[in-house]
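User: Show me a protein chain along with its predicted structure.
Assistant: Here is one chain, sequence first, then structure tokens.
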Amino acid sequence: MNTIQLRPYQSKSVSDIRESYKSGNKKVLFVLPTGGGKTETFIYMAMEAVSKGKRVYFLVHKKNLVNQISERCRRYGLKHGFIAGNRPKQYYLPAQVCSVQSLKNRLNEVPQPDLLIIDEAHHANAGTWKDILDFYKDSVYVLGVTATPWRGDGQGLGDVFSDLVLGPLPAELVKIGNLVMPEYYNFKPLADFTKIKKDKNGEYKADDLFKEMDKPAITGNAVEEYKRLAACEPAIYSCVNIKHADNVAAAFNEAGFKAVSINGNLEDAEIKSAFEGLANRSLNVVTFCDLISEGTDIPAVSVVGMLRRTMSLSLYLQIVGRGLRPMQGKDRCLILDHVGNQKLHGHPLMTREWTLEGMQKRKRKDTDEQIDNEYKDCTECFRTYEKTHAACPYCGFVEPVKVSEIEQVAGVAVKDETTLDELLKAKKSEQGKSRTLSDLWELKNKRGHKDNWVYYIFESRILKENGSIDWINKKYGLDATNQNDLKAAAKRAWNNFLRTKKH
């Protein structure tokens, strides 16, 4: 049996979560980048709760996540039962690993937990998840855990959670060695995404996307670029659907590589065997559609190929994150982006200002060609913005006029040369420049956020400060008596400010 040894940032996050509960929040959302150790953090909290006689439920939505959390519980000696499928009912055990559907079906049968931990919590305000939360209301404490606190359509989680606890940024985790640096290669897509319709959430319709991507020229180009840039390195390739994943794997095999396709319909042993094949180098490539996007720990992967274009920032970051976990002898991960996902979402390590409000919706464009033609990337803060702006609207940087532009040829890689230092030093957007409550209020009005958005940003900044209490009070205009009073002091300052705006 192993003991959980939390890293310093994990310990701080645990303290911040507990302080949030003490301040009266019953539903807290914890954000930590993929590979930062979310599972160990929440299992540590579960073990602490169980040791005090509390009952804890882990809530997940996929079979592989049920198995993964169960395995981690066994590793650290946390005895647990299951509320999942046909597994034996052992409700007397204080910890239970639950599938969403099974828990919903047994809400009136199982004992009530004291703490409900929701893994991959960006799903928490939809369908069955919401039914469970509505059933328990405020009678249980809830901890949501995710790397990306927005749903696939950019919707925030403020209707479920009342507080947000932020862990370190991805670039900070790279700096301290808990993630590896992505080496990003952008390819001008061979596919024509202007033809593809989107669903009501703004995501590409899978059938149409499959028809456009499942072409010999596109798949052949991906194989050739893998051979050129990363031959035989352990790789995973994100595909549109099972048929697409099968066809891509077949193309790699025909080219002399060893590849398999996996999907959620396979037995656990088959999926495990594929990941072990990457680790021991008996396999070169594993292709997949949705299976690897959440809850998969495969540090051996040093190449992530993208053959599925997505409008979902969450999905993009989840997939890239699968290759950033470190292991001995691995100091980088190649990202081979054949579909322009970075163009849509920015560098995977760029600073993203998560809030419970969700993302500001991009104006709808008729086609993706218009997005490519009408948007540009700021080389200072790495944000994408409309070309109609003379300067970057986020950081104010004016792009120098270039004598000549390099024309990107379809199917040919252009390496992203952004360094870690540049990402760490990148200026934050106008939100980062908004220092005071008044500044944030003005920005709130400009963007159309709700009033509480101002408070969430203000409070999160204060709680991340490491200076003396006098320095923090002076910087933010607070009256906190000590570090433990900071959250309450931020609330007092907000209430006083809000009264001036309501009169």
